Amino acid sequence: MSRLFHPASIDQVLGLLKVINALGGKTDIYKIDEEVEIDFDELSTAVSAAESLGLVKVVSGDVELTELGRKVVTSDIDEVKRELAERLATLRPFSDILDKLRTESSLSLDEVMELLCNLGYCGEVPSRRIITWAVRFGLIEVTPDDVVMPGEFARKRGR
Fold this sequence. Notes:
By secondary structure, this protein is α+β, with helices and mostly antiparallel strands. About 55% of the residues lie in helices and about 15% in strands.
């Protein structure tokens, strides 16, 4: 079974990485909380999301950038887009969406939202964050008429 992704926004995760980098690449999670104006629950969600993507590791309350995390901070995100897409594709709910799109070539956005809610991502904020990650990293595409199809990464991966 794939691991679960915590629904932090892309900006929260990237901001977290920048703060950790500015603090020397490794710091106590409470130090991050002191440095940024973010609710601790949101910070914890961002740390969990970054950890599930292999961007940070957490040991005894310290959060440290991994090599990939440093690469994300110091380079254009498009340079690591494929690696992040590969990692996202192994996490739930992204893997569930991709599995469903393998059996059905397209889904309505409402069907994806229902799937997300069934997986515990109910509500506008968590589901939109998941969809934003999936679109940004090419796992899915959403047409103007709310049809969800495999994105560029998913199409290439399916070959």
